[in-house]
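Open question from group meeting: does this chain pack into something compact, or does most of it stay loose? Before anyone orders reagents, we agreed to write out a predicted structure and look at it together. Recording both the input and the output here so the notebook holds the full record.
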Amino acid sequence: MLRILIFSLFLLSSFASQACHFDKVDFKSNFSGGRLDECKKLADDRYLLTLKPENTPINDSPWYAFKITAKQASTITLVMKVNVSNHRYPPKISRDGKHWKLLDYKLNKNKKGNNKLTMKVHVDNKPTWISAQELITNQDYYLWGEKLAKKTAVKQSIIGWSVQKRPLFKLATQGPGNEWLVLLGRQHPPELTGAMALKPFVETILAKTTLATKFRQRFNLFIVPDVNPDGVYLGNWRHNANGFDLNRDWVKFSQPETAAVNTQLLALQQQGQKIQMAIDFHSTRHSIFYTMPSDYDVEDPHFVERWLNALDKQYGDFKVKQKPGNNPDLGVFKQYIADTFKVHAITYEMGDNTDRVFINKLAKSAANQLMKAMLAKPVLKTTANKKLTK
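Structure tokens returned:
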């Protein structure tokens, strides 16, 4: 019954879904993560699809995901146009919504940018899925958390509710120590490669290896893998259901999603717990690690450099790029952690088109190197450990 209730909350109706019915083909986006704003038939077997942002101004991250069915097998041409923006994600195709591959396409550039994308698609009476990136839904996160909870000491619980009343879940482990590693994901809905990195990163720390077991004996985990469930469901380009960029709200906490996480972390601090490190997983056009400057007022100022330099040494053909930055009024999560808890935080960005196998490999290496670096820190003198805030 609980799973049915959770799924019903995730599947609240979407104002972004669209269905377009033509004489030969149908386009539908009435599923979690689906988005298709307008459809128009241009000629026989040629269709114009228009993408629009949830609101403006907005970062150029045009999202789309839809299914096509046809009365008879045929090849159709899709021209996909972006309003007020340029294409960011090359199209992927799937026959089941789970297994994806790149689709051949042509990008048509004009003086304003690359706002038209053309592709040919073979369709028939079974759904053909087209999406900007692979789909990882709110339900996927919940089921992943359930699976982890059955196999490990992870506890999955609700810490708050989104604008549209979808649950915000945290995954947490707590041992005898009072030091915490905080991990966040999916503040920006389309940034799937960051989401792909978070999962193996977490699973590596939860593994039964000697290193991970030793790490969890000292450090606790606080994980919110899906901070923006409304945006994920609606197929938003960047924002939550109120039209806010959550990664600009870590000063005012005007949105229920950021406010819920902040309440939890401050409660841990008030209980005598110690936030030691935080990572926020994202995607951008190229893989990069946004860090706090080493001369910023945080404990152990060169800690992140040691960690990422050790990671970099593992790869001869991949550069672990570090970009320090300090934006105290911008409302970014890593800055919030540094200013509130006086410790390091980074934004872990994977390239949009980075090889998926490599994303997994790098995440596991990054997690192992982080555990080694954190275990090398002096052990805190602790008082009696207290239970997690509910």
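Observations to bring back to the group:
The two ends are 21 Å apart (CA to CA).
Confidence is low (pLDDT under 50) at residues 383-390.
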